[in-house]
Amino acid sequence: MIISDILMPVMDGFQLCRMCQEDDRLSSIPFVFYSASYTERQDQEFGLGMGAVRFIVKPMDPDEFLKTIREILKDYENGLLLPSALPVDKDEDTFLKGYSGRLIRQLEKKVEDLEESNKALMKSEADLKDLFESFVMAMVNALEAKSRWTTGHSRRVAHYAEQLALEIDLGPAEIAEVKMAALLHDIGKLGLKDNILDKPSHLTEEEFRTVKEHAALGAEILHDIKPLRHITPSIRHHHEKSDGSGYPDGITGRDIGLFAGILHIADSFDAITSDRPYRSSLSKEYAVEELKKFSGKQFDPVLVDAFLRVLDNGFRCIKFNTMRIMIQGLMKVEKI
């Protein structure tokens, strides 16, 4: 028997259950969810629909828990537990829609907890920092767990964006905001199919149109989370280009926004210098030439020059805690 929580680091229980159901060595083993975070009826129906045989809500009396486990094992031994009805090729769209809905609802609950803690002034600043940071990183971890090609990408983009913001003399609060937007810039990819993210060849036109939806989708997801609503323009426009050939809105120049322009450069640099499913990573020198080549066409030339200075001079130490500054800004916005 496999007994799994749902809210876990790196990979959550829903993802684990799906992987087990797709593995011939594991699919016949009874899978039981045991969770205190996902307790709504919809969550239970979603888990059972994925092939779990039971959904147990914490806390449960130890004797009752053991009785339940014995019943499951007895049914298994007597052949009363039917094989999972979840085929390996279960509609990916259906799974992603349900999974994203569960995740977003839990993340919104974390934000509500943060807001209530702030309003009641019952938590210390350190506690608020931990809660908010865990909320953000839960989203980042969920995204990066989708594919090995997304692992580490958001964190590297955040580092490059932070350094570029520092180079152009933005203040601590602005640098913190840029970093937060960078960490979440690809959150819309939660809604993409794995076979697109992992495709070992170039995408078709239709597949690329699907991928381009992630910028707008990410902005929509974050817009429903009040403390992060102000960074949604940066998320939406981080693939816009100076000449208007970007997406999703085809805007140009100053309409793109400073923070989105920073994200675009940081994102592009990491994409070039990282492994992709269809090619190996390219050199830093190649990336620099690409930035120069498309300066003024795709990228803001002022930001390109600043980023090249960062690469030439080396990364600088950030002498303030960007996450703490974000928390302080949140407290001001949500102040009673």
From TrEMBL:
It comes from the Bacteria. Residues 150-272 form the HD domain. Gene3D superfamilies: 3.40.50.2300, Hypothetical protein af1432. SUPFAM superfamilies: CheY-like, HD-domain/PDEase-like. Keywords: Coiled coil, Phosphoprotein. Pfam families: HD_5 (PF13487), Response_reg (PF00072). The lineage of its organism: Bacteria, Pseudomonadati, Thermodesulfobacteriota, Desulfobulbia, Desulfobulbales. Residues 104-134 form a coiled coil. This is HD domain-containing protein. One of its GO terms (biological process) is phosphorelay signal transduction system. Residues 1-73 form the Response regulatory domain. Residues 128-323 form the HD-GYP domain. The modification 4-aspartylphosphate is found at residue 5. PANTHER family: CYCLIC DI-GMP PHOSPHODIESTERASE TM_0186-RELATED, LIPOPROTEIN. SMART domains: HDc.
